[in-house]
Write a structure and sequence with these properties.
The protein is mainly beta and about 120 residues long. It contains no helices and ten strands. The strands form two sheets. Strands 2-10-9-4-5-6 form a six-stranded mixed beta sheet, with no helix packed on it. Strand 5 and strand 6 form a beta hairpin. The radius of gyration is 13 Å and the shape is globular. The N and C termini lie far apart (about 40 Å).
Length: about 120
């Protein structure tokens, strides 16, 4: 199981931005499918983004497309999720993890590399 250092969660107002990061150790992200999913209170986990490889076009959930940008910097072995124009419905715990087994953005089981980052959007 790889280890991660997660950063970037917090509480923001609607319209503001956050950047989530997962610095990964124990595997190389150079040729690895890494993604993000979130879990909102009382809801099922939801796959929101997957980078099949660091240089491939990412798959992004329609409801966050244009606001969220996932990317990977192999030199830092870090997965990023840049989130702009956050809305209350984006409030959730966000997790990074492998996405190679996802069917587009759906998985019966989402695997998290860490404990997740809490994002709260509230006015």
């Amino acid at each position: 199981q790889p280890q991660v250092v997660e950063n970037g969660g917090g509480t923001v107002q609607p319209g503001e931005s956050l950047r989530l990061t997962c610095e990964v150790s124990g595997l190389r992200l150079d040729d690895y499918a890494a993604g993000w999913f979130r879990r909102a209170p009382g809801k099922e986990p939801e796959g929101i983004a997957c980078n099949p490889t660091p240089h491939a076009t990412p798959r992004i959930l329609y409801s966050v497309k244009g606001r969220f940008t996932p990317f990977v910097i192999p030199a830092y072995n870090t997965v990023y999720l840049q989130m702009r124009n956050l809305q209350p419905e984006d409030t959730a715990t966000y997790f990074c993890g492998p996405c190679g087994h996802w069917d587009v953005l759906f998985a019966t089981t989402y695997e998290a590399w860490g404990q997740g980052s809490q994002v709260t959007v509230s006015s």
